[in-house]
Amino acid sequence: xxxxxxxxxxxxxxxxxxxxxxxxxxxxxxxxxxxxxxxxxxxxxxxxxxxxxxxxxxxxxxxxxxxxxxxxxxxxxxxxxxxxxxxxxxxxxxxxxxxxxxxxxxxxxxxxxxxxxxxxxxxxxx
Amino acid sequence: xxxxxxxxxxxxxxxxxxxxxxxxxxxxxxxxxxxxxxxxxxxxxxxxxxxxxxxxxxxxxxxxxxxxxxxxxxxxxxxxxxxxxxxxxxxxxxxxxxxxxxxxxxxxxxxxxxxxxxxxxxxxxxxxxxxxxxxxxxxxxxxxx
Lengths: 126, 145
Hints:
By secondary structure, chain A is α/β, with parallel strands linked by helices. Chain A has helices at 10-23, 32-38, 45-61, 77-83, 112-124, and strands at 2-7, 27-31, 65-70, 88-93, 103-105. The longest helix of chain A has 17 residues, at 45-61.
């Protein structure tokens, strides 16, 4: 399974994801920024999708799951959400939704604990 | 999680040579070998926290990703990994200088030039493996900073 966690700040996303994988040993975390910083920016757009899909597939072979974190305005969000179906849940940290996500946590109203609880609930279903 | 020694090189022979050497050194680690840069990136993104040492070719036939790109990915996820870049370029060539400069920027331990003979190259890579092995067996408090 893959959870795409986007929105809020990079630090918040990474902290939340790292806390979540500590509680669930069969999960791994990948921050899209890490991948983008390392890879050549002139790479074809499909390349990012291919590599992330392969990462998810490789982890799945050994019964491992992935939390993929990315900025809220990433143009790749929808492409990834489609490419990683059917076993993918999308979680957005922020207020705007427009029906594009499976779950949205309003970070002005809700706490980090609420986000963590939601992630744990989803991760338990994997 | 078991530790991993990682080799990414599009030369099957070089990958095999290093794999045999790592096994002969009896390091208590798994050895992963990848022959494509894309495959290597997938391994790094999924296993970087387990990778204690990596030998990366500087370029891969037909692929845009370079050894420096791969090294950068490892560095971001796991700053403690010891990394060697191997290149066919001669040490005094502009190409080598460029790689060395990029390697220095991301604190890569070693850049191995092919030099004048395969023996020279193999010795340098084997020395690197021994260096990683020694670091693995050294209590962290005794490591130089």
